[in-house]
Amino acid sequence: MQFLKSLVLATTMVLTSANETSDPKLVEIWGDLWPFQGINTFAHLDHFSCLVDKTIPFDVGIIGVPFDTAVSYRPGARFGPRAIRAASQRQTSLRGFNPRAMFNPYDSWAKVVDCGDLPVTPMDNSLAFRQMNAGFEELLLRRQSTSENKVPPRFVLLGGDHSILLPHIRALNKVYGPVNIIHFDAHLDTWSPDKYPSYWHSEQSELNHGSMLWKAHEEGLTTKTNIHAGIRTKLSGLIDLEDDDSQDFIRIEADDIWLKGPEYVIKKILDVVPKDTPSYISVDIDVLDPGFASGTGTQEPGGWLPRELIHILRGIEELTIVGADIVEVAPAYDYAEVTATNGAQVAYEILTSMVKKGAIDPSVVKIIHTFEQ
Ligand SMILES: [Mn+2]
Q1: Based on the number of CB atoms within 10 Å of its own CB, is 92 exposed (0-12), middle (13-18) or buried (19 or more)?
Q2: Which of 58, 123, 175, 256 is the most exposed place for a label (fewest CB within 10 A)?
Q3: What's the confidence (pLDDT) of residue 9?
Q4: What is the tens place of the pLDDT at every residue in 35-66?
């Protein structure tokens, strides 16, 4: 035993002196951080400002959209991106292998980066939407992926309130045409402005985090094959469901997860949404039960478990995902990073699907852009 200890000591001394004599680089000495150390980017990804720098091609960009002045109840999702980034720190390329997917999205063909935040004003919503419209056009029409086929990069948005979906799919529409919406939420978000009656009115006031899907339908940005999942909102009456039907959404109720089971939910989504047409996944964190997502603006009791949402996201990985968002994480109402950690996991699962499926097939791209430099 004593001999073994001496051997270990001697070996250590040899290794130490070998390191000292081989003149290690500073990055070798000081470059390795533990997951809780360093400046936060999503999953420790490389960061560059994708809006400012046109020179670096990338395939998937994580981008924060810290906008929350279109909420109808509790504000605070402007702090969602930084909370999700902080909660994502145990994701690294070294430990990024997703055992449910048998795939590591951080260590594959795709260049995945943290694009930072889209700077959006909290002072004037009409200006904020102009900024977001212009920002997503810049990102989707004038940035290159690493693909030889000239398909644009794809983005996973960290919200922000749910209205940030609209400027994203406006820009996606210019690339892919209308997209199928796969919408995980407690609420319908297809409410027309007359569902918010008020003496006071302006055009901008029509747009909020419960009406952006109505607006998207009005603008022809969505297909006829869209689905909501996890719905349990209170209604003004059955007329809300008729309005929703008229906007070409199929609904999966929150209770279906335990009455009919998760495989029913997966099959229903795959039956509705055509596999090879451009689809958009939007996850409002309030689809989870408030027990797992207190940090959000409009809680609805009786929601899904994180394991159920993860299983369903894994079950639909074969779809053609051209963009995604995870929205409504409001850390001021969160406890012990629970909501933000679930948000980071959702982003990881969607990212896994986007990369695992491979680069976007150029046949789904309507307009091949020239990527002006
Ligand atoms: Mn929502």
Answers
A1: middle
A2: 123
A3: 41
A4: 999 999 999 999 999 999 999 999 999 999 99
Distance 212 CA to ligand 1 centre (A): 9
**If you measure from the C-alpha of residue 162 to the centroid of ligand 1, how many angstroms do you get, rounded to a whole number?**
5
Confidence of residue 193 (pLDDT cuts 50, 70, 90): confident
Rounded to the nearest angstrom, the distance between the alpha carbon of 239 and the centre of ligand 1 is: 19
Question: Looking at 82-96, 249-263, 286-300, which range is the least confident one?
Answer: 82-96
pLDDT band at 25 (very low <50, low <70, confident <90, very high): very high
**163 alpha carbon to ligand 1 midpoint, in Å?**
8
Residue 210 CA to ligand 1 centre (angstroms):
6
In angstroms, what CA-CA distances link 321 with 22, 84, 154, 230? Answer: 48, 21, 9, 20
Compute the residue count for the chain: 373
Distance between CA atoms of residues 231 and 228, nearest Å:
7
Helix axes 125-141, 165-176, angle to 10 degrees: 30
187 C-alpha to ligand 1 centroid (Å) = 6
Q: How far is the CA of 129 from the centre of ligand 1 (A)?
A: 17
pLDDT at site 194: 84
> Among all chains, which residue has been given the structure tokens 């795959």?
270
* AA identity, residue 236: S
Strand-pairing partners, residue 103, are: 98
